[in-house]
Amino acid sequence: MKIFSHKKSGLTIIELLVVNCIISILTAAALLAYFSQKDKAYSIVIIHDLKNFSKQSSLYYMENNSLPYSKGDVIEHTNRIFDISRDVKIKVTDLNTQKPFSEKFTAVGTLRNKSVRINMLNNTTSDISSGKNKSEKSFLTEFLLYFIYILGIGTILVVILIFISKAGSAKK
Amino acid sequence: MKNNRRLLKNFIIHKDFQLRIIFYNFLYLFIASLITASVILYPEISKMSSALSDIEKYDAAQTFLTLSAKLLPAISILLLISFIHMVILTHKICGPIRNFNKAIKEYKDGNITARVNLRKNDFLKNESLEVNEIVGELESWVVSLKKDVEFLENNIDSRDTDELKKDFEKIKKKLNIIKS
Question: Is A5 inside any structural domain?
Fold first, then answer.
């Protein structure tokens, strides 16, 4: 019955903080790894779709001597001519309708916060994701950001729990 | 009796004990979830980096995105449910122990009319019934002993030696039963 003695031998604030910190560090590391892999997966899907789009455009042009889209058009997976993944949107940015495969012919594929540009003339791709410049945000900064967010949420939860428990014991 | 009643809303009735169990359990569950998620996603991650053909990479990326879209909400819900479950479970364990503790304190102070009152689906319900039964029996013996002593006190002058001897034997028997 010692557990119900009134001596303060239970969970201390330091213990709570340590548990909170461990959870925050693990979550921050996991989220960082997860988001970088997700970013990579987005890139792979967009590049695959853009290359597919480029090939199918060439074939269409060879058969019909024209293209089924014009500058500024957005092509989605519901399009019957092009095979594009769900959630990926391809916008035709620069297009010379007269000579599409000899001059400017580029498109941008977007999936969530990820954007990749393809030059359909030579099939080269470049990452043009806006608002997420890897060189600006270092690994450590991103890790610290996640860590602070999660630590904040954890601390709020701990405070709420302590508040509830104090309110409970005050009623008695 | 009324003191032993617990309010359903007071889920954290013993902060130190309950919070420790809840937090450590949450930490273990969190680590287990991380390991599970990494084991599930690792094959696709490794394929995305090491696959030779673009189609293989594309398939791996699609699988990774589909899996992660389903896995993360599932893990979040699991953690939330387990957290709530731990609060309720520790409450169900702490409540009965607390009531036992209160009743024992009452017995220590000499009040054997106190009983361990538990709710219908609480843990240690059978044990509390047994304790209440034992204490009830003890109480009835003590009451009967008190009556005998009172009777003796009131009638000690009017009774002869043989009757007194019989009365004392009766009390001695009852005391021996209580002692044993």
Answer: no
